[in-house]
What does this fold into?
Amino acid sequence: CVKVIAVCWGSIICFPVMRRNPFMELYNPTQTELSGAAVLHQARRDQVVDACRVYSASSRKRRVLTPGDLKHLVVDEDHELIYCYVPKVACTNWKRVMMVLTGRGKYSDPMEIPSNEAHVPSNLKTLNQYSIAEINHRLKNYLKFLFVREPFERLVSAYRNKFTLKYNSSFHKRFGTRIIRRYRKNATQDALLNGADVKFKEFIEYLVDPATQRDGLNEHWQTVYQLCHPCHIHYDMVGKYETLEEDANYLLQLVGVGDSLRFPTYAKSTRTTDAMTAQFFSNISTQQQIQLYQLYKLDFLMFNYSIPSYLRLE
It folds into this structure.
């Protein structure tokens, strides 16, 4: 059966988002694969639906999507595919793959595409660039997917990448100076000017500050719930960073390109791990841990991540 969810734009235009099962339409898996991967991905979709139902029942807020909400949804017309990219969840490699898929022969190997090239907005088309009717058609008929990651591991990865590496001076200037000005007592003039040495504790203070949440979070530490709107848009596949290669190549099989295109594999020695995340959180107060968990709670619930053992919530 087909589930229909009504999504409204503004207060006037509404369109239905049809949820189909691409596992039956696009790919003929063996019985073993069907009973394994398809069942797994159905369970992940059900988890999202259940979490959305609980959240909807407990929330007084009923917001509607606007075109600006769809700027993270990358569209591949040739393969009728929509990918919602989440920073710090292999999105550079996924953008490379999408460039291969949409390039019509311009690229063959994703890793030949420089990482900075993958993030040039004009290289990929996003759903907010279409008319309402075109958006409606694509949400109903294209295969939609996203990849997620343990929320606090993703958060620490974002901090390490944006605040501890010298080449990210634009983030230091844009966010680091603001964070140091607000939360560091007796900051040096150099720190106030360059913002290059933000401590993780200061970053967390910034995140849980109501003023930050009113202003809106940057995409690198924004929740998946806010970036991809899984309670409004029903994704056909929810991939996980923890099973990245397996999920990614299964998706490429579904699309029908699995024989000619593989997701890039590489062992990254600097990757943020659970143990590393626990170490970063060891100096965060219980109150701030509770506030932070509340901020990312929906991501934990929707994507079936358990509360980390190192977290102090009492």
User: Anything to note?
Assistant: Residues 31-58 form the longest helix (28 residues). Residues 253 and 259 are 8 Å apart (CA to CA).
